[in-house]
Amino acid sequence: MIAYKIVMVGDFGVGKTSLVKRFVDNSFSEEYLSTIGVSISKKNLNNSTLMLWDIEGHTEFKPIFKQYLMGAKGFIIVADITRENTIESIKKHIELCHTVVKNAPVCIALNKSDMPHILDEKAITNLKELSASIVDVYQTSAKEGNSVLEIFSALDAQVIASIKG
Amino acid sequence: MENIARLICKKSNISYIVFSDSLQVLDFSDKLDTIVDDFSLLSFDADIRDVMWELIGMEDKLSSLYNDTSNTIHLPMILKNNHYYDLDIEVFEDSVEKYFIAYFTQKTKESLSYIQTIKEINKKILTYENENKQNQEEHYSLINEKVINFNVNKEGNITVVNDAFMHFFDLNKDAIIAQHFSVFFKTREENLTEISSIILNAKNINNELISFHANVIPITKDEEVYENIIICQDISYLKEVEKELELAANHDSLTGLANPSKLLKRLDVEILKCKETLNSFSICFIDLNKFKSVNDNYGHHAGDMLLKHIAKVLSDFVRKDDMVARVGGDEFVILFDSLEDQEILQNMIQRIQQLAKNNKLHYTDDDIIEFEFSLGLASYPQDAKSAQELLQTADKERYKHKKR
User: Fold this and answer.
1) pTM of the model
2) What is the pLDDT of residues A63-104, one digit of tens each?
3) Does the beta-carbon distance from A12 to B56 stay under 8 Å?
4) Architecture of domain A2-164 in CATH?
5) Fewer Cβ close by (within 10 Å): the C or N end of chain B?
């Protein structure tokens, strides 16, 4: 088993904790409980042990603490598909991650895809072009479980390939 | 020395683990059961990463720390079993070797209170954002009910309509979609491309003609316009404004009668008509006698009331096609349409004088204001060749009878 660190990054309230809970415990809660600091979870997937750092979301008055990003092998950038401002933040989140871990693979989760939204295919294509390190963009739903396993599996495959490569 | 360190840590509620550069546990304090991630694995020589998941991936950073290229590793606010800890890792060196010490400092009650406040603020911001979004949707829904908007394709055929459109024409969507917009709206433009606004007219279900100012918003795909959104604003009120402006420009503001400008326009029209038909018409210049004494004795309000009273009396007296105008402070003109017979005109003069006698102004219960007119007649084309000349002739005739 290879153990490595993945950090969940995004604005506050986009569903980072919900994605981790769905992936680790297969559970979901409608109640919003803001994450302060960092909570670390462990999940075995295929032949990997993923250490998932669920960090405090970025807010206008509190930036992301860069120390949390150290040593990560990959990042999941999470945005709320119904909140345009959280999607606009993706670019600067990627840039921040890459200042700490250069060229680390990134998966983008457009979460809450079970809710009505207007994001079209062109916008998704534009997101993919933000960085060469982007593995893929997923429309996830922590509530219904859509694409949750897929996004972690894709990032795992990329990380394992880069470790072995 | 080690015992002193243990005592200090215990007193300050700090837990610690000592580990080597090969990441093997060398020593640890008590009360670590709620702090380390897998307490069952905590033993001497255990891999520190098995009990402290924070250190997975931190190997390079630890190596730098060990080799003096960085000072400390500080990870604040780590949540473990509902408690928050700050983790600090430093290198300690004694006479024999160097090793790492990881300190866990539990956050104070004050810090936890601060954390709770931040959580509440974040929750409120998110709730506010959601409510704001819902409010916006409700507002759009209300606008959708009140303001007509629709989409047309490049050919001008309707592709989308809103509730207000369907309600205005009392039609369902099927009867509207794919029809050309000109089926519903009358306008000079047949094509909406490269137009940013347009005036549209349409009859509502009560057959009233409504005018709209419409904004045309192009929707583009690959830099090419494929549809336009049309947003219509009812501007029928502007017609009312236009009427008011026309009234103000052509009428006397006190009495509501035609003003000199409107009288002259009408005289010109009548003169042209007479030239074509060889007919005649007449005017009567009316001057109110002793009006100054009314103002002096009763005040200007009474004077204004008297002028308004006379305006009504004269307006009630004339025929539908005649015109009464106020041409000066106490001067009026009546235009008698198609009237030239001197006998009838003299009869009119007498009737107008009689009007003054029969219609005294009851200003108050005690104050009854009497009035008299001086009158002068003139007819076109017998007495003048132009509107101005006709007025001057009638005024001269009136002057002969003026009582001051």
Assistant:
1) 0.57
2) 888 999 999 999 999 999 999 889 999 999 999 999 999 999
3) no
4) 3-Layer(aba) Sandwich (3.40)
5) N
